[in-house]
Amino acid sequence: MQRRTLATGLVLAIGLIPCLAWAADHPAVGRWDITVIFSPDYKAANWLEIRQENGELRAKHCAEVSSAYDIGKIEADGNKLSFKSAEGESFRYAYTGTIKNDTISGTCTVIKGRNQGKEYPFIGLKFVPAVDASGTWKMKLGDDQADLTLTQTRQSIAGTMTGLHTGEVANASLKGNHLEITLKLGEKTGKLAGNIKGDVLDGTFDAGNDKLVKFTARRERKWGEPIKLFNGLDLDGWKTMDPPGLEMDNKWTVIDGVMTSTAGGENIQTHRKFMDFKLHVEFRVPPRGNSGVYLRGRYEIQIHDSFGKAPSAHSCGALYSRIKPSVNAAKPANEWQTYDITLIGQYLTVVHNGQTIIDNQEIEGITGGAIDSNEHEPGPIYFQGDHSKIEFRNVTLTPAS
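The structure assignment produced for this chain is given below.
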């Protein structure tokens, strides 16, 4: 993916002010979706994760056009953070910010290059997963089975369990993706605890006999009607877009039923936006080619001429710089290949040329090139056109009901 850019990524090197002792609930800990406002027309999406390890705050970061990477120890003073960003070995920006509740805001100052000394505002929101437990969950408890049917409203979760164990939900709580339920099972009280990962629920169940049984459950998912995003005739339903910080020419055309871009042009995205879906894409990449499929406009599934190479977080089929494929399923350059991608919430499955290479794994945050950092919102499908020549056909999306 590696792009040229006007505003380079934030390679954070925080360590400008003394570090105070803090508890695990220090306000900086968590994932942050950040927007740097370079101009009214250019707002750069960034992401930052701050965690506590051995009494220190450490961080991982993804800039508007970069990889996600660990940046080491952070030092902070109460609710104030300061950090610098680097391009290569030289610093370009200095950031100062203040955390208030679930918001961080401050200024970005150019310390090298064009517009030196100029300040730009930035703002970030702490990311809290929006998880819905509603639906019928088909549970496997060892050799036994049960159905857990839940309805979630803003205030509560209600439902029933049927099968080997039958009863009603007495109370339930959902914190992040962690679900805890107390069930009234006749004269016994059952307890269930697990983590919702897209359409999968894993955890333990106690049927009131103080014996924990591990279980895996899958939600019965209803799907809408498939949508042909590319009609094979023209670019109706699509619009071009410049890569972050750059202006480029439109090089997208339709040739013999194939959506084609020659090297070094604009990216292209759908007018329509989507949240949860299944996506089928066929693509052809030339020797040394490089492109990508962006989900909700924020998460890049890498396209790369990777045939015969070891899997990496930058090879074909990877969630760019974040999740490497379990195997390399890439075909040689100039051969047609397929992606079958499922995205439910923050959980991703990728089937590449018929092989599952990412299996319901969590997306921690945006990848470089994201259109924005609004992770709770629907977004478009977009294809990268600013690298090599790339070809697409048979692009079909099936939305989740």
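Interim note for the steering committee: Residues 2-24 have pLDDT under 50 and may be disordered. The radius of gyration is 23 Å.
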